[in-house]
Each structure stands twice: as C-alpha cells, then as structure tokens.
C-alpha cells in the first residue's frame, strides 16, 4: 500500500509556519499598497455626514411624530464634528418650500420640504437631493451634478 510520506528524506513540503509567514507578508503588502485608498476622500466624508444628518432628522420626525428641521447654517459644524474637514468647504442649501428659509423640514409621515444641497471644496460640484414626497435622499454623481 502506498504511503503519504516520501521515502527520500531530502524531499519535504512546506510547514505551517512557512505558510503563515507568506500569508502575513502578503497581507502586509496589501495593507501598505491599499491603505491610502481605504480612507474616503474629504468629499465622501462630507457626503456621509450630510446624509447621516438628514436621515437622522427624518427618522426622528417619524419616530416622535413631530416636525424635525435641519438648519443649513449649522451643517458645517455638524460635519466637522463627524470628522470631515471643513476648511475650504462650500455648502449651498436650496429647500424647495419655504422661500428664503435655509431649513429642511421633515414631517411625521416621512415627507419633507424637499430641495437639494450643493457642496464641494472650493467649487460646490456634488448635489444631495432630498425628495419632498418620500423624504428619500439621493446623491447625484459628480459628472451629473457639475455645472
């Protein structure tokens, strides 16, 4: 009956330790090579903070049965608190209803005042849409939102 062990003592396979070292080195190389790409760019951080703020107001309104508002004048401070830099950040708010107001209102039925927020560093080129009927929040791709 054939055996798994080699009859020649000079032939040997790789050990578990050698395999672990190779896997660790490959992991280290992947981490170093991809590490810079894992952190989102500043625009993505701002986008996430805006969506979080708007979504939080909507869910608070629905849960509590009251009107919740997001004031655009305090958005930069809230975004900075969320960990995004705001040094060159430009935010422009355009609520659909409530002319002259810089607030988005969220109602207990899930609807909102609607409108959009345009933001970017230097030149605002990303748009976050707030649907007035459903309260859904959408981000337009850069190429679609650039003027």
From TrEMBL:
Keyword annotations for this protein, in alphabetical order, are: Membrane, Transmembrane, Transmembrane helix
Which residue spans traverse the membrane? 20-39
The source's superkingdom equals: Bacteria
Q: Which SUPFAM superfamilies match?
A: Pili subunits (SSF54523)
This protein is called: Prepilin-type N-terminal cleavage/methylation domain-containing protein
Question: What organism is listed for this UniProt entry?
Answer: Nitrogeniibacter mangrovi
């Amino acid at each position: 009956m054939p055996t798994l062990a080699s009859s020649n003592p000079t032939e040997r396979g790789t050990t578990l330790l050698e395999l672990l070292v190779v896997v660790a080195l490959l992991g280290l190389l992947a981490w170093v090579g991809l590490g810079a790409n894992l952190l989102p760019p500043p625009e993505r951080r701002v986008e996430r903070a805006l969506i979080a703020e708007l979504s939080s107001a909507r869910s608070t309104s629905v849960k509590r049965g009251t009107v919740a508002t997001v004031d655009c004048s305090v958005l930069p401070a809230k975004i900075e608190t969320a960990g995004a830099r705001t040094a060159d950040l430009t935010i422009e708010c355009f609520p659909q209803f409530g002319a002259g107001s810089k607030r988005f209102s969220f109602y207990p039925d899930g609807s909102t005042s609607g409108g959009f927020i345009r933001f970017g560093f230097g030149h605002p080129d990303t748009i976050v849409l707030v649907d007035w009927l459903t309260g859904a929040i959408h981000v337009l791709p850069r190429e679609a939102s650039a003027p």
